[in-house]
Amino acid sequence: MVSPHRIDLGFFDIHVCNWSDRPMFFMALFSTARYDEIARIEVLDAAGAALGELDLTKYRLAKTPQGAEKRVFIRQIPIPPGATDGWYSARVTSRTGAQSVARDFVVLAPLPIVSGAQPRPDANDIPMPKELRWDPAAGAKHYQVFIQDLWN
Predict the structure, then answer these.
(1) What are φ and ψ of residue 8, in 5° steps?
(2) What is the residue-averaged pLDDT of the chain?
(3) Which of 5, 15, 85, 91 has its CA 20 to 30 A from that of 72?
(4) What is the pLDDT of residues 71-121, one digit of tens each?
(5) Residue 145: how many CB atoms within 10 A of its CB?
(6) Which residues contact 84 (CB under 8 A, 6 or more apart)?
(7) What is the mean predicted confidence (pLDDT) over 57-71?
């Protein structure tokens, strides 16, 4: 079965983030090794309305399993009023003008915030931990951890 996330030019993913310090938002990304062929990436909601574009000048570098360079374009997008569950999409326009659409099904439901974080999020003046731990959040498929160095 072919994934609706994948098109010839790359891979699209969009999901809901519910960080404890801000309102829920979308995190949209498109990764591709064929970045030089892309002219535009538009993100559309379940009804086909525009949510915004991915900035092709801002990206993270990564490697394909074969070692080729790829770019990951990421954008945080506010969830508009009236947003619904459904198939969200990325409409990718190539430099030749051809368009392709990749899709991802989004459920607009917050996940519980993790608890039991060790070291505690409010901990200060502690030695660099060798391990980060937390209690699992029901329904979470992955976690993203941010480590902040107040001096940098």
Answers:
(1) -55, -35
(2) 89
(3) 85
(4) 999 999 999 999 999 999 999 999 999 999 999 999 998 877 778 878 877
(5) 8
(6) 45, 46, 47, 108
(7) 92
The band of 148, judged by pLDDT with boundaries at 50, 70 and 90, is low
Q: How many residues does the chain have?
A: 152
Report the amino acid identity of residue 72. Answer: V
Residue that is written with structure tokens 């092709």 in the block: 56
Kindly report the number of other CB atoms within 10 A of residue 106's CB atom.
Answer: 20
Amino acid at 123: A
C-alpha–C-alpha distance, residues 125 and 21, integer Å: 22
Helix/strand/coil (H, E, C) string of the chain?
A: CCCCCEECCEEEEEEEECCCCCCCEEEEEEEECCHHHEEEEEEECCCCCEEEECCCCCCEEEECCCCCEEEEEEEEEECCCCCCCEEEEEEEEECCCCEEEEEEEECCCCCCCCEEEECCCCCCCCCCCCCCEEECCCCCCCCCCCCCCCCC
Of 148, 78, 144, 150, the residue nearest 114 (C-alpha): 144
